[in-house]
Structure formats: structure tokens, C-alpha cells
Design a protein that fits this description.
The complex is a heterodimer. By secondary structure, chain A is an all-alpha fold. Chain A is built from 19 helices and no strands. Classes of the chains: A mainly alpha, B alpha+beta.
């Protein structure tokens, strides 16, 4: 029985989340294409934007993809995961819908202020502040209100998962938490703890400041609050992909998960270590003592552990699946995997690309090596492998598998779908390798025209290749990525608009139980209160003193004294 | 709890890798002396940084024998000095940059080197560099700072130390 037939209301909720997410993906993706063609100089004159509007495009690309697309897909995907794994309806549907509406209104507000950069007659005002919105660059208040509504909306949808879990627990006092629900709850504990930073930044500082209620804000304090959230948010993107790799991918490979206990340990480690790491985005920031940066670095490197464990467990599960299908040999099993199925190939390729992204992430995390690549185009080269592929391509794979189950319709355009993940990976390989190498040569990120003194006297001295060749690969890769995105959207739109009830659905939502089940692990793993408590302590250790010193030298202005600007002194 | 033998090996290898990474960084800063930006630069009044006790008029100063200090103020969309006139510093000397911003957040990077810092209003980034050859370096602002961000750039001219000392127009300060 398909998910939509068993849980029609929950399926509707997932559909709405995915629908809004796909619209954000379409617009944000188009902006990405414009950037690739403008920045590299190809078709710069043919594009209908000027250099300053490049930053409008960049803001839209970042906000719509990194914040809007991700959050909607995650919240919708988790509704499915909780409902399916607890095998019960949501406890209070209305709560989740309120959260969804809050996210939707927030998105519309923020999107309007961004689009205002193209046409001033669009309501409110402009917001050319990029998705990091570092003060004292200022956006219209509607942008910050929109961001706050998006975050708070996700909190409300998250509350629904906990309420539903509580009801399930009342009926099943002695059972282990089903794995998918465990993963959802762990992810959201991490999300509540970490998104608090950006919520305080926006609600306590940026909104009052943009409305003129306070005259200034401390740039270092606000960006520290941003990065308190800004790194854990990448795990908010990554953990849903892990949920898919642990629980859906092994089944698609023809097998089952290798180890349920290890999966739980991995998620517990992410609850503990995801948040006290934000200073590794601020290695080159003045005003933060090196000791605090070192603590963040140690925590960051410890996070390699759960990701390396994931690599082991996922690959072992795939190999098990392949051998169930009769594969032989050390590497022969790779050929036996169902590469022609888009749901499988998208997720498996995403995992493979994530390994490459993990390696460049290790460079980013190295406190002194980081100086070579900080704010160069290396960094977007890195995160297009992680959020831009590990997350995005996994969610495309999830969609190929899940959208039929939440709509009751057969997947359409299967050939396009089968080719799409490979087009994505080819495009990403071209774009990302060039970005990494460009970064090593010092090519900056976040700039409409990266070449020094216009075009001529470029001081960049690449180790491998030439700047012109890199620009070509970035333009070509970006174009292929846009083509792959369009292919995905064609498949989704075609599926969505097709007639329902035609034939039997070719997917089924059952997930086999793991080789090593939850009974092999200690029950303490399921005690999320304990892990949340330890996570809070680790955050206090990492952030207590530096935040205190930033506040003590003046909440709104460094060096001015604690409350000086507040008191009008 | 049951853990597969291969998984235990993998786990051990992962721990070794993590320890090795941390060890290289510790060696880099303590052994090889790779300097990083910390909080040594102190704070300034973001509305008027160059008048603060903790800063000077932008420019190059001699602070000791073979020791120089460069005070740079970043503003939309220029480094002062750096953009309108190049920053001249000697090779084979200890050059300490003090960089701050008079408006929004900027970046300060010498292309292709690890001289790289954020420039944050209210904070002074302090970093010490030794240039081992006479050549021109290019400065880029690597943090988005407004509509003409991409035009914000500058140059540093590193000249041989004896030639630099011969020009005799660098103010000496005790610092």
C-alpha cells in the first residue's frame, strides 16, 4: 500500500514542502547559471544584469538554495520519515501546517526583497547582502523578518515530530526508537541548539537595527552568532542525506543496512559536535583568540569520525546488496549495482562526490592551511560538492523514489531521469575542480569580476592549468548543472501532472531491517535528553568565554563599554 | 555492543588520521612558526578607527631595527594605503600589518600567499609577515562589501631592504 493511500494527509504535507522547495530550486538554479556565465566573462554583455546586480543574483542563489530549498525539502522528507517509521499519523497536523505557512510567508518576504534588486517597484526594499548578511551591510527589515519566519517555521514543523514521537512512546513504552525517527529527532535537537544563534542575531540585533530602534550593531558579535549557526546548518543539510544513505540506499542496492547501532552512534556524535565548531569559519577573523579557534578545529576534526564511519557503513551495505544480487570479486560488485535506476545512482553518486568534498573540507578545517584558501573560490568549489551535490543530488534521488509514493503516480520520463544524475556529476566535476584550483591560485569568491584590474594584469599563478581554462570549465560545468536541473524538474513536473491510478506503482516503501539491529546497541543511545545536555555543555565550553568578551566590550559596539550605545552615550 | 572487525580497524585508522591532522597544525604553528590572526590587534571605534588609541594614520612606520608596521584602513572601495598609492615595504624584514575598516566588513588578501585576513569594523587584524623576495604583490578585497566590491584591490611593492632603508622617509615610532 503506497504511502499516499495509507497516510493521505501526511503525503499532502510532504507534497507541499517538496513543491515549494522545487520552485526555489528552479529560480535559485537559474541564478546559478547567470552567475557562472557572468563571472567567467562568457556572455557577460548578453546577460540582462550589471555588475552590481550580480550580487542580487548571488544573494538569491544562496538564500533560495542554501536556506529555502534545503529547509523545505528536509522538513517534508522528515514528515515522511517520522510517519513511515512510527507507522502512525502525525499527532497534531495543524502544528506542522502552521510551521509550513510560517516558512512560506518568510520565504516570500525574503524573496521579494531580493528581487527588488532587479526592479525597485517590487514591494519593500532591497537586500543585496548575500546569504550571510554580515552587518553593517543592511537589508530591508522584511528580509530579516522573512529569514526569522523561515527558521521559526522549521522549529514549529520540528515540534510536530517530537509531539508525534511522544504519542508513539506512550503507546510503546519499551521499544527502541525506530531508526528513521531517531535520526530525525537527533537532527532536530542539533538544529534547535544551533539555529538559536541566527535567531538571536536576527531578532535581537538585525531587525531592531534595520528598523532604526538601535543605532548600530557589533559586526564581530553578529557574524559570530551567524557562524554559530552557519556551520551546524551544513549538518542540518547533510544528516537528511545520511538518513537516505543509511535507510533507503541499501534497499535500492538490493540489500539492507549493515549496522543500526553504528548509525545511531554517528547521529549522536553529530548532536554533540555539530555546534561547537563555528569558529572554523572565522579562523581569519580578528578579535577572537587563537585558543578558541583551536578548540573549534579539534571539534571539527573529530567530526571526521562520524563521516568516516558513514562511509564504511554505507559502502559495506552497498557491497552486501550487490552480493545479494550475485556479484563476485573484490570490485566486481560495483558493476552489479543498479546504476540505471535514478534513485540509486543519484544517491550513490552523491555519496561518492561527498567523499571528494570531505577531503577539501579537511583542508578548510586546518587552522593554518585555511589561510591559503579562505574566501577564495576554493570554498564554493567545496560546498558545491557538499550541499550542492551530497545534499541536492541525494534529494533528487529521494524525489525519484518518494514522489511516486506521495502522489500515487508513476514516475514519468524515466530515460531523462536515468541520465540526469550523471549529467549533474559531470557538470559538477568540471565546475568544482576548476574552482578548487582557482582558489589555490588566489581567485576570490563572491565577486562579479574576479580578474584583477578588469581583465589584463591578472596576478593569479595557478599550480595546475590556466585561469582561462578554469573559467571555461566553470562556465561549461555551470551550464551542464543547469541542464541537469532542468531535466530533474521536467521529470518532477511530468510526474506531478500525470494521471493518477495508472497501473501499479513500481516502487514500494518497505525498508528491510538491518543486518545488525538496534538490540545490539546499548539503550543509552536512545536517551536523547542525555546527548542534548552534553551538547549544551560543549557549546558553553566552546562559546562561553569568547561570546562573553564580545558582549563585555560593548554589546552594540566594541570598545565602547557594555551598554554605552544603548544608553545613548 | 557488536562491532565488525573491519569496522574496528577502520575506526582506529580514522582516529589516527584525526590525531595526525591536529598534530600537523600544532607543528605548523609551534614548530614552523606559521602566524595566524588572533585577538592581539585589539579594538577601535568603528566610526573613526584611525583616531583611536589603538591605531595610527594609515601608512608605513619603522618600529625597530628591521621591524616595520603598516596601518591600513579599508573603506568602500579602496585600501588606504594600497589602492591609490602602493604600500612599499622592505624584503627580509618583519612587517606587521594592522588592518581595520571604516565602514563595512572587507577582506585583505595577498594573492597566492597565506597573508589573508577578514577586516571587521571595530576590530584590528594584526598579522606579521616576512617577504623573502622583492616583487609586487596584489591585494584583493575578498569579502563582498557593496556594489563595486569587485573593483576593490591594491598593490604592495616589496623592495630590497638596503634600498628601502636608503630612502629615509619612513617615520619611526616606538611600538
Amino acid at each position: 500500500m503506497a504511502f499516499v493511500d495509507k497516510f493521505p494527509n501526511e503525503a499532502k504535507l510532504v507534497r507541499w514542502h517538496f513543491g515549494v522547495g522545487f520552485i526555489a530550486l528552479a529560480i535559485g538554479g537559474l541564478f546559478g547559471l547567470v552567475q557562472a556565465l557572468y563571472r567567467t566573462g562568457y556572455f557577460r554583455d548578453a546577460l540582462p544584469i550589471d555588475a552590481s546586480q550580480y550580487y542580487t543574483v548571488l544573494t538569491g542563489h544562496g538564500v533560495l538554495l542554501a536556506l529555502v530549498f534545503t529547509t523545505f525539502l528536509i522538513c517534508g522528507f522528515f514528515v515522511w520519515a517520522v510517519t513511515r517509521s512510527l507507522d502512525r499519523q502525525l499527532a497534531h497536523q495543524r502544528v506542522a501546517w502552521v510551521g509550513f505557512l510560517s516558512m512560506l510567508v518568510g520565504t516570500v518576504l525574503a524573496a521579494l526583497t531580493i528581487l527588488n534588486g532587479f526592479a525597485p517597484e517590487i514591494p519593500f526594499g532591497s537586500a543585496d547582502v548575500l546569504y550571510t548578511f554580515y552587518a553593517p551591510l543592511q537589508a530591508h527589515p522584511a528580509f530579516y523578518v522573512g529569514a526569522a519566519l523561515l527558521i521559526v517555521g522549521s522549529w514549529i514543523v520540528g515540534a510536530e515530530y517530537f509531539l508525534t514521537y511522544r504519542e508513539w512512546r506512550a503507546d510503546n513504552p519499551d521499544e527502541r526508537i525506530p531508526l528513521q525517527t531517531f535520526m530525525v529527532l537527533a537532527t532536530f535537537i542539533m538544529w534547535y541548539l544551533s539555529s538559536l544563534g541566527v535567531a538571536v542575531e536576527v531578532l535581537a540585533f538585525l531587525i531592531p537595527w534595520s528598523l532604526g530602534w538601535i543605532s548600530q550593531v557589533d559586526p564581530l558579535l553578529t557574524r559570530t552568532l551567524f557562524w554559530y549557526f552557519g556551520h551546524p546548518v551544513v549538518y542540518f543539510w547533510l544528516l537528511p542525506a545520511y538518513l537516505a544513505w543509511y535507510t533507503i540506499l541499501p534497499k535500492l542496492a538490493g540489500g539492507k543496512l549493515f549496522s543500526d547501532p553504528l548509525a545511531r552512534i554517528v547521529f549522536v556524535l553529530f548532536v554533540l559536535l555539530s555546534t561547537p565548531v563555528g569558529f572554523h569559519h572565522q579562523y581569519t577573523d580578528p578579535g577572537i583568540a587563537e585558543g578558541f579557534k583551536f578548540i573549534a578545529m579539534t571539534n571539527t576534526f573529530m567530526l571526521l569520525l562520524p563521516s568516516l564511519l558513514t562511509a564504511f557503513t554505507v559502502v559495506a551495505s552497498l557491497e552486501h546488496g550487490a552480493r545479494q544480487r550475485g556479484a563476485k570479486g573484490y570490485f566486481g560488485w560495483l558493476r552489479a549495482l543498479p546504476w540505471g535506476q535514478p534513485a540509486f545512482s543519484a544517491m550513490a553518486l552523491a555519496g561518492l562526490v561527498f567523499a571528494a568534498g570531505g577531503f577539501s573540507g579537511m583542508i578548510n578545517a586546518g587552522m593554518n592551511i585555511n589561510y591559503l584558501i579562505h574566501n577564495t573560490i576554493w570554498v564554493p568549489g567545496h560546498f558545491h560538492l557538499t550541499v550542492g551535490t551530497a545534499f541536492a543530488l541525494t534529494m533528487m534521488g529521494v524525489s525519484y523514489w518518494l514522489v511516486p509514493q506521495i502522489t500515487g503516480k508513476q514516475l514519468q520520463h524515466k530515460t531523462i531521469a536515468a541520465v540526469q544524475p550523471f549529467v549533474w556529476v559531470v557538470g559538477m566535476t568540471l565546475m568544482s575542480n576548476a574552482m578548487h584550483r582557482g582558489g589555490l591560485a588566489g581567485l576570490p569568491r563572491r565577486t562579479a569580476k574576479p580578474l584583477f584590474r578588469g581583465e589584463g594584469a591578472a596576478p593569479f599563478d595557478p599550480v595546475v592549468g590556466s585561469i582561462a581554462e578554469m573559467q571555461l570549465q566553470i562556465a561549461l560545468g555551470g551550464t551542464l548543472l543547469f541542464v541537469a536541473l532542468a531535466m530533474f524538474l521536467v521529470v518532477m513536473t511530468g510526474t506531478w501532472l500525470s494521471r493518477s491510478g495508472v497501473g501499479q506503482l513500481s516502487v514500494n516503501g518497505t525498508i528491510p531491517s538491518p543486518l545488525s539491529g538496534p538490540a545490539d546497541s546499548p539503550r543509552i543511545l536512545d536517551n536523547l535528553k542525555v546527548w542534548a545536555g552534553i551538547a549544551v555543555v560543549l557549546v558553553i565550553i566552546a562559546y562561553g568565554l569568547p561570546l562573553y568578551s564580545m558582549l563585555a566590550d560593548g554589546i552594540l559596539s566594541p570598545g565602547a563599554g557594555l551598554l554605552a550605545p544603548l544608553l545613548g552615550l | 555492543m557488536r562491532i565488525h572487525r573491519f569496522e574496528k580497524l577502520w575506526l582506529a585508522a580514522a582516529f589516527v588520521l584525526i590525531a595526525a591532522f591536529i598534530a600537523t597544525i600544532v607543528y605548523g604553528s609551534l614548530g614552523a612558526g606559521v602566524a595566524m590572526v588572533g585577538d592581539e590587534g585589539g579594538t577601535v571605534n568603528p566610526d573613526n578607527p584611525t583616531a583611536s588609541d589603538n591605531f595610527r594614520d594609515p601608512g608605513v612606520y619603522q618600529t625597530g631595527d628591521g621591524e616595520y608596521a603598516v596601518y591600513v584602513e579599508a573603506r568602500q572601495f579602496a585600501f588606504s594605503p594600497g589602492t591609490n598609492q602602493p604600500i612599499r615595504v622592505p624584503a627580509d624584514a618583519e612587517v606587521t600589518f594592522h588592518v581595520t575598516s571604516g565602514d563595512v566588513t572587507h577582506g585583505f588578501e595577498l594573492v597566492g600567499t597565506n597573508v589573508n585576513t577578514m577586516v571587521i569594523p571595530g576590530q584590528v587584524a594584526e598579522l606579521t609577515v616576512e617577504f623573502d623576495e622583492a616583487r609586487t604583490h596584489h591585494i584583493v578585497c575578498h569579502e563582498y562589501c557593496g556594489a563595486a566590491h569587485h573593483a576593490m584591490e591594491g598593490t604592495i611593492e616589496v623592495v630590497p631592504r638596503d634600498q628601502f632603508e636608503a630612502q629615509n622617509d619612513v617615520p619611526e615610532v616606538s611600538d
